[in-house]
Design brief:
InterPro entries: P-loop_NTPase
Strand content: 5-15%
CATH architecture of the largest domain: 3-Layer(aba) Sandwich
Oligomer: single chain
Number of strands: 6
Radius of gyration: 21 Å
Number of helices: 13
CATH superfamily of the largest domain: P-loop containing nucleotide triphosphate hydrolases
Pfam families: DNA_pol3_delta2
Order of helices and strands: HEHHEHEHEHEHEHHHHHH
Protein name: DNA polymerase III subunit delta
Distance between the termini: 49 Å
Organism: Desulfovibrio piger
């Protein structure tokens, strides 16, 4: 299995080449948008390998075979630190992993590390996820560090779309857009659900009868419906909405200033499924939010 497998396909050749070139003069803050969440994380770790591997490969990138590359890919390298604003303090304390919560204790520890030299000969790389959903004092304290240039450290912001982040963060970042998932592909099996959700957004009717049916909706199907919503909103926000897709038409009716907030709601719904919240309740709550937003337009 290749390292950084989620970005190992030819679709990501350009992204890898850009990262190779940037490694010669790393930006203080790199913003990775687009792609899927696993692809953004893989790209961020690949970038960490670019600035830490001491045995560059033939194309100027990391060698992908040394202990440094393997440790970074596994999330185990001491100079690659990751924080996620969506992880709760309780989960972080009970199950500390390679990606930590964005809380004051962890940030104090990080800021102390930033004052010290990296363990290896490369750079310390700090990955930041879920920043758009975390407005805590810890997040604010960490974001201030982005304004303090460091020759031995750099930061990577990960977000589905740069519009989800504060403009001041985006303005300080070098933005790199990963290949978007095939937003035009549609699963015929999801069409009845997309139509029902679109009808509910515009009229407040027709969805709960479907979600209330016995064994009609499991977590896997709910996840697919949420992915369809994200693809549809991506088309709408880029001006490429499909007039033949009822969901595109319904989401296009939402106020422009509310569409980024809807992206947050899609992410929150995905997280709720991950915490085993009943799929029907997750979809119903999301649909209610979208309908209220539509009616308030």
């Amino acid at each position: 299995m290749p390292l950084f497998q989620d970005i190992s396909t030819p679709d990501f050749d350009r992204i890898r080449e850009v990262l190779h070139r940037l490694a010669a003069n790393p930006p203080q803050v790199l913003l990775l948008e687009g792609g899927t969440e696993p692809q953004r994380l893989a790209a961020a770790r690949y970038w960490a390998a670019c600035v830490n591997c001491q045995q560059p490969g033939g194309e100027g990138g990391p060698c992908l075979i040394c202990p440094t590359c393997m440790q970074i890919d596994a999330g185990e390298h001491l100079d690659v630190l990751a924080y996620d604003g969506r992880i709760s303090n309780a989960d972080d304390e009970a199950h500390p992993g390679p990606i930590r919560a964005l809380n004051m204790d962890n940030i104090r520890e990080l800021k102390q590390k930033l004052r010290d030299a990296p363990h290896g000969q490369g750079r310390r790389v700090v990955l930041l996820m879920g920043v758009e959903q975390n407005r805590s004092n810890a997040a604010n304290a960490l974001l201030k560090a982005l304004e303090e240039p460091s020759p031995s450290s750099c930061f990577v912001l990960l977000a589905a779309q740069r519009e989800q982040l504060l403009p001041t963060l985006v303005s300080r970042s070098l933005c790199l857009t990963l290949p978007w998932p095939d937003s035009l592909s549609r699963d015929p099996a999801l069409q009845p659900w997309e139509e029902a959700l679109a009808l509910f957004i515009t009229s407040g009717r027709g969805l709960f009868e479907r979600t209330g049916a016995r064994n009609a909706l499991d977590a896997r199907l709910a996840g697919q419906i949420l992915l369809a919503c994200q693809k549809s909103m991506s088309r709408v926000m880029s001006g490429n909405d499909d007039a033949l897709c009822p969901l595109d038409t319904a989401l296009a009716l939402l106020p422009r200033e509310k569409r980024v907030q809807c992206c947050f709601w899609f992410n929150e719904a995905q997280e709720a499924l991950g915490f085993n919240v009943t799929p029907a309740r997750v979809l119903e709550a999301l649909a209610a939010r979208l309908h209220v937003t539509r009616m308030g337009n």
